[in-house]
Amino acid sequence: MSLDIERAPVPETKPTPDEMSHGLGMLDPRGWLRRSAVVSTRGSKERGGRHTVVDRVLDLGIYVALIGLIIYFWQASPYFLSERNLLNIGSAVAVTGVLAAGMTIALIAGQLDLTVGANVALTSVIVAILIEDEHWATPLAVAAGVGVGLMIGLANSALIVGVGINSIIATLAMGIVIRGLALISTNGQNRPLTHLGLTNFVNDRPLDIPTTVWILLAVFLVGTIVMTFTRAGWHVYGVGGNPSAALRAGIRTKRLYTGVFLTTGALAALGGIMTTGTSSGGGPNYAVGAEFDVLTAVLLGGIGLGGGAGRLERTLAGVLVIGVLNNGLTLVSVDSYYQQLARGGVFVLAVVMGAIAERRRAR
User: Fold this and answer.
1) Distances from the Cα of 4 to the Cα of 71, 163, 250, angstroms
2) Could you tell me which of 327, 339, 317, 328 has the C-alpha nearest to residue 72?
3) Domains, the chain, ranges and CATH?
4) Closest Cα to residue 25, out of 36, 11, 13?
5) What is the pLDDT of residues 208-247, one digit of tens each?
6) Burial profile 274-293: b = 16 or more Cβ within 10 angstroms, e = fewer
7) Is the distance from CB of 326 to CB of 276 less than 8 angstroms?
8) Strands 26-27 and 38-39: what pairing?
9) Is the pTM of this model over 0.90?
């Protein structure tokens, strides 16, 4: 993963064609109608037919796996394809999906945010305290929760962009600090909600679909539009593919990295608010190990660790694979120990797929 942040002033020399074509690609202003405006000059067709077949398998593998799991559990359990069960799957993966959307953007930019689980916990605690102890109106408490997430993103950015610490180390350390703050704030105890405004909103079912599912779809829709059709999205791809060439092209890399971490912080806070509503309270131990499921979903979607490539819709497919697998294994009464083994196997598979995809993109 390319995690070095440029501090030198932008040089006056323009990038060479080779620099522009290596990872960054040509930022084609006429390409805003295409699925991605970042046009790589090293497409799979240039690698020959043998590579094209493998790349196609990697591209479609996540969708084939999702369809295969759906067919298998449909045959194994008569309840799997019921409307109620499908909506349960959507609700179960909603928070993971929101966190995975932010993680996808960070990885495309060549960064990693391991504070998302702790962010969920601290946000849930703060929102619960503000509603119960401080008697804040629910909308104000929710806004404050998003503000907490933005402050966490800003702190991560200060360490990574300002000080120049590797994002894995910085966010891992910050995650421990944030989790500690959540524990201190509640003395390690959950804070239940007696004022149920947030709970009623999150558990509502507009058009008979849970609010959490609507939020999940909205996050991915907005994220896909931004990453595909806006200059900011193109710049995220460009900086993740080749930070040096992006800097020489005039992209303000420091500002962009800050925006990326503010995004991951805000989305993690949104996940914390959703968790507060569904759980009717806040808890300092919420979302422990959430990074595992988030990274599994992102890697299953083919988002490499090298930056500069990936699509949000593929991450959504990875999230659904996890949800279908967890739900299906429970329906067919698989022992919890074997479920843990299956989850670990899926994570290993995701890492292998990500490594293969990254190696092929580097050729």
Assistant:
1) 44, 11, 17
2) 328
3) 45-361 (1.10.3470)
4) 36
5) 999 999 999 999 999 999 999 999 999 999 999 888 888 8
6) bbbbbbbbbbbebbeebbeb
7) no
8) antiparallel
9) no
